[in-house]
Amino acid sequence: MTRSDANKMWGGRFAMSPAELMVEINASIGFDKAMAPQDIAGSKAHAEMLARQGIISKTDAREIIKGLEQVRSEIERGEFAFSQALEDIHMNVESRLAELIGPAAGRLHTARSRNDQVALDFRLYVRDSLDAFDSTLHSLQQVLATKAETHADVVMPGFTHLQPAQPVTFGHHLLAYVEMLGRDRGRFADARKRLNESPLGSAALAGTSFPIDREATAEALGFDRPTANSLDGVSDRDFALETLAAAAISAMHLSRLAEEIVIWMTPQFGFVRLSDKWTTGSSIMPQKRNPDAAELCRAKVGRIAGAFQGLLMVMKGLPLTYSKDMQEDKEATFDALRAFAVAAAAMRGMIEDLEPVPETMRAAAGRGYSTATDLADWLVRTLGLPFREAHHVTGTIVKRAESKGMALEDLSLAEMQAVEPRITKDVFSVLSVDASVRSRTSYGGTAPQNVRKMARRWIKRLEKAPGKA
Ligand code: ARG
């Protein structure tokens, strides 16, 4: 590092170079170079506005914009030499711009500070992630809803406590996730609405004396409006916190689905198959097929929730406005946003690939006396027993069946009548798993006709492009 390198941006006041460790602890270029496209887009909008307002000349603005385009293409082609001594992406870009176009580059930073610049870049970056999440989750919902329609009447055990509870349909189970993802998308959309104000023009913290047009830069960069308070504009990171919180919640949903895939894929369950595309083998055990992708989707929530917690701790107690602490906002956030993007996309791929094994699911649905509630409901409906009494009678019948190692529907009528003499052979019509799911026609229930209708409703709703829902 040369002395001139280190002090280029504030050399007037500084005589000595920073300590080596100062450079290391201070530099963010190692991770904030990911915001190069946003930084350049922000600078272009700023330069155009400065020229329109007569704050810099049209010629300088043209040079600046041409130079920025050149910088962008150097970065895209991997030809840009990032310098740690130049600290961050903002100074790296500006310094290269000066090499390319000379003194006019120095006019770009008029009426701007790195404080509003970084607040802007980070917002744009997070906004891009929000848009990408929405389209991936939209697509995941489509895949789930389509599968749900196809398998609307595939019967499987529904669980509570991971114990067989009542039969449900596979389609119904998949649609549960479509609902969750719908709410996740709603949370991301809410975060985007509040995020979508431009901090550019807040300058260092107090605004500027130059006659800038903040409405114009806000509009050029796709914001709804400029932030209304310059102190707030440079110093809040709640938009990143909100996005991380929403991502952590959605990642939690993905992790539950991932866990179910892991369970369903075990030979003990055997409910679904995943192809070679989404599984791995073992280097020692030739019979193995491991659901690594699902396991990793299950795990990602950890680092996303961690990034949320980390940023919350960085921000808490910071006095207004900018403090260098806030440079710690980016590294873990970028990592978490990438982790969410890859987990959601992998889940989409897995669900598309996943095939249920209906015979196994069906057989499992019949085990564990999963239609006991149907028997109790029959006693209530047909014999007028109070539900609590029906529950007791059914429990006694289940105990009998269990001691004989038999399913409920395989008990003889006489055996049931020994417990409750008024039971008739009509009871057998409710004891099969198919009859059980068919009867659950209450709104939101698992009956195949409901599931088909709900799946179609979702498929129709999802015809609307992402970003619009
Ligand atoms: N690299 C810095 C960050 O990420 C940019 C803002 C620097 N501002 C300052 N006043 N030193 O926070």
Overview of the structural elements:
The protein is mainly alpha-helical. Helices cover 60% and strands 4% of the residues. The chain has 19 helices and 6 strands. The strands form 3 sheets. The chain has a two-stranded antiparallel ribbon with strand order 1-2. The longest helix has 37 residues, at 114-150. The structure holds arginine (ARG). Arginine (ARG) is lined by residues 28, 32, 88, 114-115, 118, 322, 324, 326-327. Residues 28, 32, 88, 114-115, 118, 322, 324, 326-327 line the site of arginine.
Please estimate the helix content: 55-70%
Quaternary state of the chains: single chain
The assigned structural class equals: mainly alpha
Mean pLDDT equals 95
Write down how many β-strands occur, each being a DSSP E stretch of 2 or more residues. Answer: 6
Hetero ligands: arginine
Largest beta-sheet characterization: 2 strands, antiparallel
- Dominant shape: elongated
| Strand coverage percent | under 5%
Distance between the terminal alpha carbons, to the nearest Å? 51 Å
Q: Order of strands in the sheet with the most strands?
A: 1-2
Order of helices and strands: HHHHHHHEEHEHEHHEHHEHHHHHH
* Spans of at least 5 consecutive residues with low confidence: none
C-alpha-based Rg, rounded = 31 Å
Count up the helices. Answer: 19
